[in-house]
Design a protein that fits this description.
Helix content is about 10%, strand content about 50%. It is built from 3 helices and 28 strands. The N terminus is likely disordered.
Length: about 375
């Protein structure tokens, strides 16, 4: 009897331990979905559709990468933001990030910074004043959101309250930013004539220096502790083309012999796309390659094993990579006789195998944020 009693007690303890572990895991895996009118699956992808400038038709679409929503209709929702908030996102959604169990979005034309929960329900909103200029891009660290403003400044904002704490002046028309080693790097496009990246010390929120780049820098990313940039080149005579550059750890600049209009990084491999566009016919010639940020080697072989015929001449507007599984998503901008129509998403596995393509739910898909 004592043996049986002891065995029973042991089984009870094991069962309780398993139950507590399951509860703990459930709590760790739970999302902040308060106020959601739809039930979303665990793995989530939010697609920022920029829309057409001044058309007030930006949106955030939802996509379930595993296709496992309880209701199949929720595997893709064309405008999740509108469904959740009963209003449109605004004019020209330009950037979106996931940070500290929330999603932050800047809407360029509407001069807004929005804070959403992980189901796309709006929590707070900040409207920038005329002196701030229009917001462009986002970064975040240590409870702060950083927003580049077309007034030539970067704003530091409390991530919880969306209260603006401070500004720092950079140069004209700051664009994308990236954080590395407690420094904020800011690309200054100068509306086509700028040629610097400003470096800001996050501890003091003061500008340390300007690093000269090829004219019209727009995009930045970090890989293997160094900063990489895409410059669009000069818009006016003499017109120059896109340039891919590396800011070395010692602050010197290297121009890498590859052209790129968009890029993304995963595991210190930079995925480069040069979508050379014929704007008269609204078609493009796409060249894809990779750059290893550890070995500093350029691989001119396409990172896709197969490219669908419909993608070959589409205008590739963005690239996003799911950091969990390495899947690659190419975002295309579609135009028919000059009239914008919904773009498409092309999904590939990490090894470049084509998975699927689908309508993105809006115009000019710019970026995908993944939450898991």
């Amino acid at each position: 009897m004592k043996v049986r009693s002891l065995l029973f007690s042991t089984l009870c303890v094991v069962a309780m331990s398993a139950a507590l572990t399951a509860c703990s895991n459930d709590e760790e895996d739970s999302f902040n979905d308060e106020g959601s009118v739809v039930e979303l699956p665990h793995k989530r992808a939010f697609i920022l559709n920029e829309g057409k400038y001044k058309a007030n038709n930006s949106g955030i679409a939802f996509y379930a990468p595993d296709g496992d929503a309880k209701e199949s209709k929720n595997n893709f929702i064309a405008d999740l933001y509108k469904v959740q908030n009963q209003k449109s996102l605004g004019d020209s959604g330009f950037d979106m990030i996931a940070y500290d169990d929330h999603i932050y979005v800047v809407v360029y034309g509407s001069k807004l910074l929005l804070k959403l929960n992980e189901a796309g329900v709006e929590q707070k909103q900040l409207t920038f004043v005329e002196a701030d200029g229009q917001p462009r891009c986002l970064e975040a660290k240590d409870g702060k959101i950083y927003v580049s403003l077309y007034s030539g400044k970067v704003a530091r904002i409390d991530a919880s309250t969306l209260a603006i704490e401070a500004y720092v002046s950079v140069n004209a028309n700051p664009e994308q930013m990236v954080i590395e080693d407690d420094k904020l790097y800011v690309a200054n496009s100068g509306w086509g004539s700028g040629n610097t990246v400003s470096v800001i010390d996050l501890a003091t929120f003061n500008k340390l220096e300007d690093i000269p780049l090829v004219v019209n820098p727009n995009y930045l990313l970090e890989a293997n502790g160094e900063i990489y940039a895409i410059s669009y080149g000069a818009w006016k005579d003499p017109v120059t083309s896109y340039s891919f550059q590396r800011i070395k750890a010692d602050g010197t600049l290297e121009i890498i012999p590859a052209k790129a209009s968009v890029f993304a990084e995963h595991n210190d491999i930079i995925y480069l796309i040069d979508s050379k566009t014929d704007w008269k016919n609204h078609t493009a010639i796409n060249t894809l390659c990779t750059y290893n940020a550890k070995t500093h080697e350029l691989n001119t072989t396409s990172f896709l094993k197969e490219m669908p015929e419909t993608l070959k001449n589409s205008i590739i507007y963005g690239i996003s990579i799911n950091e969990k599984d390495g899947d690659i998503y190419l975002l295309t901008s579609n135009y028919a006789s000059g009239s914008p129509i919904n773009g498409d998403v092309y999904r590939f596995s990490a090894n470049g195998t084509f998975v699927e393509t689908f309508d993105c739910g809006g115009i000019n898909p710019k970026k995908i944020v993944f939450i898991d």
